[in-house]
Amino acid sequence: MFKNFTGFSLVSEMHKLRQSNRFNPNILKKKSIGLFFVAVIVLVLWFLPTESFGIDGLTQVQQRIIAIFVYATLMWVFELVPAWATSVSIMVLLLLFASDSGIKWICNPSAVGQLLSYKQVMASFADPVVMLFIGGFVLAIATTKIGLDVHLARVLLTPFGKKSENILLGFMLVTALFSMFISNTATTAMMLTFLTPVFKQLPEGGKGRIAMALSIPIAANLGGMGTPIGTPPNTIALKYLNDPEGLNLGIGFGQVLPLHPEDHRAQD
Question: Degrees (nearest 5) of the Cα angle 101, 105, 107?
Protein backbone atom coordinates (compact mmCIF):
# COMPACT_ATOMS: atom_id res chain seq x y z
CA MET A 1 0.00 0.00 0.00
CA PHE A 2 2.84 2.41 0.83
CA LYS A 3 5.29 1.43 -1.90
CA ASN A 4 5.14 4.92 -3.39
CA PHE A 5 5.44 6.71 -0.05
CA THR A 6 8.28 9.13 -0.90
CA GLY A 7 7.93 12.08 1.40
CA PHE A 8 6.38 15.47 1.74
CA SER A 9 6.71 17.41 -1.54
CA LEU A 10 3.27 18.95 -1.05
CA VAL A 11 4.53 20.88 1.97
CA SER A 12 6.65 23.18 -0.22
CA GLU A 13 3.70 23.69 -2.55
CA MET A 14 1.57 24.73 0.41
CA HIS A 15 4.14 27.38 1.37
CA LYS A 16 4.18 28.73 -2.19
CA LEU A 17 0.39 28.92 -2.28
CA ARG A 18 0.28 30.75 1.04
CA GLN A 19 2.86 33.26 -0.23
CA SER A 20 0.93 33.94 -3.45
CA ASN A 21 -2.35 34.45 -1.54
CA ARG A 22 -0.86 37.38 0.32
CA PHE A 23 -0.86 39.50 -2.84
CA ASN A 24 -4.04 38.16 -4.43
CA PRO A 25 -6.20 41.20 -5.48
CA ASN A 26 -9.45 39.48 -4.47
CA ILE A 27 -8.13 38.62 -1.01
CA LEU A 28 -6.75 42.14 -0.54
CA LYS A 29 -10.15 43.58 -1.50
CA LYS A 30 -11.97 41.37 1.03
CA LYS A 31 -9.52 42.31 3.76
CA SER A 32 -9.91 46.02 2.97
CA ILE A 33 -13.70 45.73 3.31
CA GLY A 34 -13.24 43.81 6.56
CA LEU A 35 -10.91 46.46 7.97
CA PHE A 36 -13.44 49.18 7.11
CA PHE A 37 -16.20 47.20 8.85
CA VAL A 38 -14.09 46.69 11.98
CA ALA A 39 -13.12 50.38 12.06
CA VAL A 40 -16.78 51.48 11.90
CA ILE A 41 -17.84 49.13 14.72
CA VAL A 42 -14.94 50.17 16.96
CA LEU A 43 -15.45 53.91 16.36
CA VAL A 44 -19.17 53.62 17.14
CA LEU A 45 -18.38 51.87 20.45
CA TRP A 46 -15.60 54.35 21.17
CA PHE A 47 -17.73 57.53 20.77
CA LEU A 48 -21.11 56.32 22.04
CA PRO A 49 -22.34 58.05 25.21
CA THR A 50 -21.39 55.95 28.22
CA GLU A 51 -25.04 55.87 29.32
CA SER A 52 -25.99 53.85 26.23
CA PHE A 53 -24.08 50.80 27.53
CA GLY A 54 -26.46 50.44 30.45
CA ILE A 55 -23.62 50.00 32.97
CA ASP A 56 -23.75 52.18 36.06
CA GLY A 57 -20.61 54.18 36.70
CA LEU A 58 -18.99 53.29 33.38
CA THR A 59 -16.05 55.64 32.69
CA GLN A 60 -14.64 56.63 29.33
CA VAL A 61 -11.51 54.59 29.99
CA GLN A 62 -13.61 51.48 30.57
CA GLN A 63 -15.58 52.27 27.42
CA ARG A 64 -12.34 52.47 25.44
CA ILE A 65 -11.25 49.10 26.83
CA ILE A 66 -14.57 47.60 25.67
CA ALA A 67 -13.98 49.04 22.19
CA ILE A 68 -10.42 47.65 22.14
CA PHE A 69 -11.73 44.25 23.24
CA VAL A 70 -14.25 44.22 20.37
CA TYR A 71 -11.50 45.34 17.96
CA ALA A 72 -9.24 42.48 19.04
CA THR A 73 -12.03 39.91 18.82
CA LEU A 74 -13.08 40.94 15.31
CA MET A 75 -9.49 41.11 14.02
CA TRP A 76 -8.70 37.65 15.36
CA VAL A 77 -11.93 36.10 14.10
CA PHE A 78 -11.74 37.53 10.57
CA GLU A 79 -7.91 37.16 10.35
CA LEU A 80 -7.54 40.45 8.51
CA VAL A 81 -3.92 40.77 9.63
CA PRO A 82 -1.56 38.27 11.27
CA ALA A 83 -2.58 37.43 14.83
CA TRP A 84 0.67 38.77 16.25
CA ALA A 85 0.07 42.15 14.62
CA THR A 86 -3.32 42.42 16.32
CA SER A 87 -1.77 41.48 19.67
CA VAL A 88 0.90 44.18 19.38
CA SER A 89 -1.66 46.79 18.33
CA ILE A 90 -3.73 46.03 21.46
CA MET A 91 -0.77 46.91 23.64
CA VAL A 92 -0.17 50.14 21.69
CA LEU A 93 -3.84 51.19 21.93
CA LEU A 94 -3.96 50.53 25.67
CA LEU A 95 -0.79 52.53 26.27
CA LEU A 96 -1.87 55.48 24.10
CA PHE A 97 -5.53 55.79 25.07
CA ALA A 98 -6.07 54.12 28.45
CA SER A 99 -2.86 54.41 30.50
CA ASP A 100 -1.25 57.12 32.60
CA SER A 101 1.52 57.45 30.00
CA GLY A 102 -0.89 57.98 27.09
CA ILE A 103 -1.63 61.07 25.04
CA LYS A 104 -2.09 63.87 27.56
CA TRP A 105 -5.14 65.62 26.09
CA ILE A 106 -6.92 62.29 25.56
CA CYS A 107 -5.92 60.66 28.86
CA ASN A 108 -7.01 63.30 31.36
CA PRO A 109 -8.01 61.47 34.57
CA SER A 110 -10.45 64.18 35.64
CA ALA A 111 -12.37 63.80 32.38
CA VAL A 112 -12.09 60.12 31.43
CA GLY A 113 -11.79 58.39 34.81
CA GLN A 114 -9.09 56.32 36.47
CA LEU A 115 -6.34 55.34 34.03
CA LEU A 116 -4.43 52.09 33.81
CA SER A 117 -0.87 51.99 35.05
CA TYR A 118 1.46 51.68 32.07
CA LYS A 119 3.72 49.46 34.20
CA GLN A 120 0.86 47.02 34.80
CA VAL A 121 -0.04 47.03 31.10
CA MET A 122 3.52 46.20 30.09
CA ALA A 123 3.94 43.71 32.95
CA SER A 124 0.97 41.66 31.72
CA PHE A 125 2.65 41.27 28.34
CA ALA A 126 6.03 40.52 29.92
CA ASP A 127 4.68 37.80 32.21
CA PRO A 128 7.06 34.81 32.34
CA VAL A 129 4.30 32.53 31.04
CA VAL A 130 3.75 34.79 28.03
CA MET A 131 7.49 34.88 27.35
CA LEU A 132 7.57 31.08 27.48
CA PHE A 133 4.69 30.91 24.98
CA ILE A 134 6.51 33.32 22.68
CA GLY A 135 9.65 31.18 22.85
CA GLY A 136 7.66 28.08 21.88
CA PHE A 137 5.92 29.89 19.03
CA VAL A 138 9.23 31.28 17.74
CA LEU A 139 10.69 27.77 17.84
CA ALA A 140 7.73 26.38 15.89
CA ILE A 141 7.84 29.17 13.28
CA ALA A 142 11.62 28.88 12.88
CA THR A 143 11.49 25.13 12.26
CA THR A 144 8.74 25.64 9.66
CA LYS A 145 10.51 28.52 7.91
CA ILE A 146 13.77 26.65 7.37
CA GLY A 147 12.07 23.33 6.66
CA LEU A 148 13.58 21.63 9.71
CA ASP A 149 10.21 20.12 10.63
CA VAL A 150 10.00 18.37 7.24
CA HIS A 151 13.53 16.95 7.48
CA LEU A 152 13.07 15.81 11.06
CA ALA A 153 9.77 14.11 10.26
CA ARG A 154 11.27 12.37 7.23
CA VAL A 155 14.27 11.12 9.21
CA LEU A 156 12.21 9.99 12.19
CA LEU A 157 9.58 8.24 10.06
CA THR A 158 12.04 6.35 7.87
CA PRO A 159 12.75 3.52 10.37
CA PHE A 160 9.06 2.59 10.52
CA GLY A 161 9.02 1.18 7.00
CA LYS A 162 5.99 1.19 4.71
CA LYS A 163 3.43 -1.01 6.47
CA SER A 164 0.26 0.85 7.38
CA GLU A 165 0.33 -0.07 11.08
CA ASN A 166 4.01 0.91 11.36
CA ILE A 167 3.37 4.21 9.57
CA LEU A 168 0.53 4.93 11.99
CA LEU A 169 2.74 4.16 14.98
CA GLY A 170 5.53 6.30 13.55
CA PHE A 171 3.26 9.31 13.05
CA MET A 172 1.98 9.02 16.62
CA LEU A 173 5.43 8.73 18.18
CA VAL A 174 6.88 11.60 16.13
CA THR A 175 3.86 13.79 16.89
CA ALA A 176 4.10 13.07 20.61
CA LEU A 177 7.83 13.87 20.56
CA PHE A 178 7.32 17.21 18.76
CA SER A 179 4.39 18.09 21.04
CA MET A 180 6.61 17.84 24.11
CA PHE A 181 8.51 20.95 23.01
CA ILE A 182 6.08 22.71 20.63
CA SER A 183 2.46 23.65 21.29
CA ASN A 184 0.22 20.64 20.66
CA THR A 185 -2.01 22.73 18.40
CA ALA A 186 0.92 23.80 16.22
CA THR A 187 2.23 20.23 16.16
CA THR A 188 -1.14 18.86 15.05
CA ALA A 189 -1.41 21.39 12.21
CA MET A 190 2.14 20.60 11.11
CA MET A 191 1.75 16.82 11.15
CA LEU A 192 -1.65 16.83 9.43
CA THR A 193 0.08 18.53 6.50
CA PHE A 194 2.44 15.55 6.22
CA LEU A 195 -0.51 13.18 5.94
CA THR A 196 -1.54 14.53 2.52
CA PRO A 197 0.70 12.18 0.47
CA VAL A 198 -0.28 9.29 2.75
CA PHE A 199 -4.01 9.89 2.23
CA LYS A 200 -3.52 9.62 -1.54
CA GLN A 201 -2.44 6.02 -1.14
CA LEU A 202 -5.30 5.00 1.15
CA PRO A 203 -8.72 3.94 -0.16
CA GLU A 204 -11.40 6.63 -0.01
CA GLY A 205 -13.94 6.10 2.74
CA GLY A 206 -11.73 3.53 4.44
CA LYS A 207 -10.89 3.35 8.11
CA GLY A 208 -7.23 4.00 7.39
CA ARG A 209 -7.79 7.70 6.70
CA ILE A 210 -9.95 8.08 9.80
CA ALA A 211 -7.36 6.33 11.97
CA MET A 212 -4.55 8.50 10.60
CA ALA A 213 -6.49 11.74 11.06
CA LEU A 214 -7.53 10.90 14.63
CA SER A 215 -4.13 9.60 15.69
CA ILE A 216 -2.37 12.95 15.20
CA PRO A 217 -4.37 15.11 17.67
CA ILE A 218 -4.52 12.24 20.18
CA ALA A 219 -0.74 11.79 20.05
CA ALA A 220 -0.23 15.57 20.30
CA ASN A 221 -2.37 15.76 23.44
CA LEU A 222 -0.53 12.83 25.01
CA GLY A 223 2.86 14.32 24.19
CA GLY A 224 1.76 17.72 25.46
CA MET A 225 1.44 16.23 28.96
CA GLY A 226 5.12 15.35 29.03
CA THR A 227 6.62 18.79 29.67
CA PRO A 228 5.49 22.17 31.07
CA ILE A 229 5.82 23.76 27.63
CA GLY A 230 3.97 21.01 25.77
CA THR A 231 0.66 22.85 25.99
CA PRO A 232 -0.30 26.30 27.40
CA PRO A 233 -2.50 24.97 30.26
CA ASN A 234 0.53 23.13 31.67
CA THR A 235 2.50 26.35 31.97
CA ILE A 236 -0.40 28.33 33.42
CA ALA A 237 -1.01 25.61 36.04
CA LEU A 238 2.71 25.44 36.87
CA LYS A 239 2.78 29.21 37.41
CA TYR A 240 0.11 29.08 40.09
CA LEU A 241 1.47 25.91 41.69
CA ASN A 242 4.86 27.63 42.11
CA ASP A 243 3.42 30.97 43.20
CA PRO A 244 5.25 32.02 46.43
CA GLU A 245 1.99 33.48 47.74
CA GLY A 246 0.07 30.28 46.89
CA LEU A 247 1.04 26.61 47.09
CA ASN A 248 4.73 27.38 46.44
CA LEU A 249 5.54 23.81 45.39
CA GLY A 250 8.76 24.73 43.58
CA ILE A 251 8.19 22.23 40.78
CA GLY A 252 10.95 22.22 38.15
CA PHE A 253 10.89 21.36 34.46
CA GLY A 254 11.64 17.65 34.89
CA GLN A 255 9.84 16.99 38.16
CA VAL A 256 6.66 14.97 38.60
CA LEU A 257 3.74 16.68 40.33
CA PRO A 258 3.17 15.09 43.77
CA LEU A 259 -0.24 13.66 44.56
CA HIS A 260 -0.47 15.73 47.75
CA PRO A 261 1.20 19.15 48.18
CA GLU A 262 1.98 18.26 51.83
CA ASP A 263 4.17 15.37 50.63
CA HIS A 264 6.27 17.76 48.57
CA ARG A 265 6.69 20.21 51.44
CA ALA A 266 7.63 17.39 53.80
CA GLN A 267 10.44 16.36 51.44
CA ASP A 268 11.78 19.92 51.44
Answer: 45
